[in-house]
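RECORD TYPE: inverse folding
INPUT: structure tokens
STRUCTURE:
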């Protein structure tokens, strides 16, 4: 298969995937320092969220608080970690 950018070297391979929205997360990343940026990023997708920015902020922060509480941090983002064998 030809490469779209043929002069950029070999294809990149990752060793780990972090899956969000899973029912059985096994990794929580501390997002306390970036929670405001996360809220702003979600709000930037205006066509995909409600017109009530306060509701969006509350929902994003509530989910992050719940994930963080599981591991003793203020705000977290939960993932399922999948290690890939190459």
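DESIGNED SEQUENCE:
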């Amino acid at each position: 298969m030809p490469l779209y950018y043929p002069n950029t070297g070999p294809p990149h391979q990752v060793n780990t995937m972090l899956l969000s929205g899973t029912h059985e997360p096994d990794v929580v990343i501390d997002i306390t320092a970036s929670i405001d940026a996360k809220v702003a990023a979600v709000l930037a997708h205006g066509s995909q969220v409600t017109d009530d920015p306060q509701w969006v902020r509350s929902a994003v922060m509530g989910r992050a608080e719940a994930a963080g509480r599981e591991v003793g941090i203020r705000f977290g983002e939960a993932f399922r970690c999948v290690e890939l064998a190459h």
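NOTES: The chain has a mean pLDDT of 91.
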